[in-house]
């Protein structure tokens, strides 16, 4: 059985200065209540690894607006003018990573691989300072694994041993990020009894999950 | 008809039955409204859905089922949902037939820049670099100029999205195809002359021997 964390306690798990993977795509499939708890706790100096920063009033965007972030890895910040403002003003260190490369870097970390070879980004500014590897006469860009102290996950269903399912496009980065955090904290739409999720339907095995957030009141 | 609708109606002619198609955010999304009747395509959404349908009726939205702009959509019979690793595996792995993307600049070599204006606007590349890398066919749907300035230029001044050459450029004035010799003007919009197009284009244009007026999908009402 995994510990079920109260809303009032969840932010205590994540200290200032932590590196945090947060799943979601423009807020869809994002652990919105955990994000709210971090904002309310006034967390500072976080390093975030996210697909995007949603909007200043939505999802991860709230952490940006609250100035809780010092370093950001993301593929897209176009929907959040505040992220761009902080970046252009030199207040926020942003590394933009192509979306397919970002997910594979996270996967490499979580799956115990040493890196990713891709052609995405070859010949562009994202290839600067990276190694180009020649394999049988073809050039590939080497991108290194990316993991974190914490992964914050949104599941559709969780059972009490931490097995997870996802719904439609709310899966996005969740399945992969759940493998790449030292501590994995899950906010589910619904927590169900053990046995209610059939083994074949489990997308994230509960063995990688550390905490569940209590159900919405 | 405004510029965006004209571009979408022309791009829609490029969409063939039986293909898997990804439409970028903004103008490219409009193309779905004009896919000709009888053409059956499967739409890919990079946030993890193949078989994307139109908007659900009001009140039936599921916020776990959205397009790449986070607007609620439907999943058609036969649809499949998956994580971002699978989604970009489809894109990078050569399983996607066509992508339609917007652009900030395209140059005489057919290179696209569409993810940042240094010092001013940094939306990020999102999935664009992977789409350029992996899609079998890349169509750029964009307005011909931005505040009067040409977007089809000799050499991109903004950072490139990819060194891959795009396959077709569709604007409200013209259809242009990159080639080893340079950009080839294939079609002009109704009422637009080749001189008008040259005036609005910084890159040199080779006028095709078979240059002709642009055809447009004539669907009366958007179907989605």
What order do the helices and strands come in, and which of them pair?
The complex is a heterodimer of chains A (217) and B (224).
Chain A lengths: L3 E2 L13 E4 L9 H9 L5 E4 L11 H5 L3 E6 L6 H8 L4 E4 L2 H12 L5 E3 L13 E4 L2 E6 L4 E12 L4 E2 L8 H4 L3 E12 L18 E3 L4
Parallel strand pairs in A: 1-12, 2-3, 2-9, 3-4, 4-5, 9-11, 11-12
Antiparallel strand pairs in A: 6-8, 7-8, 9-10
Chain B lengths: L2 H9 L8 E4 L3 H4 L11 E4 L3 E5 L20 E8 L2 H9 L5 E4 L3 E3 L4 E2 L14 H7 L2 E5 L3 E2 L2 E2 L1 E2 L14 E3 L3 E6 L2 E7 L5 H6 L5 E9 L11
Parallel strand pairs in B: 1-2, 1-5, 5-8, 6-11, 8-12, 14-15
Antiparallel strand pairs in B: 2-3, 3-4, 6-7, 9-10, 12-13, 13-14
Helix pairs in contact in B: 3-4
Overall description:
The complex is a heterodimer of chains A (217) and B (224). The two termini of chain A are 21 Å apart. The model of chain A has no long low-confidence stretch (mean pLDDT 98). In chain A, a hairpin with a 2-residue loop joins strand 7 and strand 8. By secondary structure, chain A is an alpha/beta fold. In chain A, the strands form two sheets. In chain A, strands 1, 2, 3, 4, 5, 9, 10, 11 and 12 form a nine-stranded mixed beta sheet that branches. Chain A is built from five helices and twelve strands. By secondary structure, chain B is α/β, with parallel strands linked by helices. In chain B, the strands form three sheets. A ten-stranded mixed beta sheet of chain B has the order 4-3-2-1-5-8-12-13-14-15. In chain B, a hairpin with a 2-residue loop joins strand 13 (174-179) and strand 14 (182-188). In chain B, helix 3 (84-92) packs across helix 4. At the A-B interface, helix 3, helix 4 and helix 5 of A face helix 3 and helix 4 of B.
């Amino acid at each position: 059985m995994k510990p079920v964390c109260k809303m009032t306690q969840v932010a205590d798990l994540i200290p200032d200065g932590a590196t945090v993977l947060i799943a979601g795509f423009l807020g869809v499939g994002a652990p919105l209540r955990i994000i709210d708890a971090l904002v309310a706790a006034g967390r500072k100096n976080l390093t975030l690894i996210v697909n995007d920063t949603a909007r200043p009033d939505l999802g991860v965007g709230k952490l940006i607006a609250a100035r809780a972030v010092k370093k950001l890895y993301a593929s897209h910040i176009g929907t959040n003018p505040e992220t761009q403002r902080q970046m252009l003003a030199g207040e926020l260190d942003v590394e933009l990573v192509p979306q397919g490369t970002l997910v594979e870097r996270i996967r490499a970390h979580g799956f115990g691989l040493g890196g990713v070879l891709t052609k995405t980004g070859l010949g562009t500014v994202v290839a600067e300072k990276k190694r180009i590897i020649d394999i049988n006469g073809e050039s590939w860009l080497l991108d290194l694994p990316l993991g974190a102290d914490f992964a914050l996950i949104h599941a559709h269903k969780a059972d009490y041993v931490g097995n997870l399912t996802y719904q439609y496009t709310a899966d996005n980065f969740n399945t992969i990020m759940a493998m790449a955090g030292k501590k994995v904290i899950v906010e589910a739409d619904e927590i169900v009894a053990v046995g209610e999720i059939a083994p074949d339907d489990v997308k994230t095995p509960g063995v990688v999950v550390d905490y569940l957030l209590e159900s919405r009141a | 008809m405004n510029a965006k609708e004209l571009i979408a109606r022309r791009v829609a002619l490029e969409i063939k039955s039986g293909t898997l198609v990804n439409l970028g955010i903004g103008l490219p999304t409009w193309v779905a409204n004009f896919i000709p009747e009888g053409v059956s395509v499967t739409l890919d959404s990079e946030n993890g859905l193949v078989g994307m349908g139109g908007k659900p009726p009001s009140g039936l939205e599921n916020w776990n089922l959205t397009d790449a702009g986070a607007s609620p959509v439907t999943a058609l019979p036969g649809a499949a949902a998956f994580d971002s690793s699978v989604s970009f595996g489809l894109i990078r792995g050569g399983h996607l037939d066509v992508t339609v993307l917007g652009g900030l600049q395209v140059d005489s070599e057919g290179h696209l820049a569409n993810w940042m204006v240094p010092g001013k606007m940094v939306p990020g590349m999102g999935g664009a670099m992977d789409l350029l890398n992996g899609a079998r066919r890349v169509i750029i749907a964009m307005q011909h100029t931005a505040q009067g300035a040409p977007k089809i230029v000799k050499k991109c001044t903004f950072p490139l999205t990819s060194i891959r050459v795009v396959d077709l450029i569709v604007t409200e004035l013209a259809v242009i195809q990159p080639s080893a010799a340079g950009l080839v003007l294939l079609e002009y919009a109704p009422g637009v002359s080749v001189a008008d197009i040259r005036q609005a284009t910084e890159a040199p244009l080779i006028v095709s021997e078979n240059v002709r007026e642009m055809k447009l999908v004539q669907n009366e009402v958007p179907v989605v």
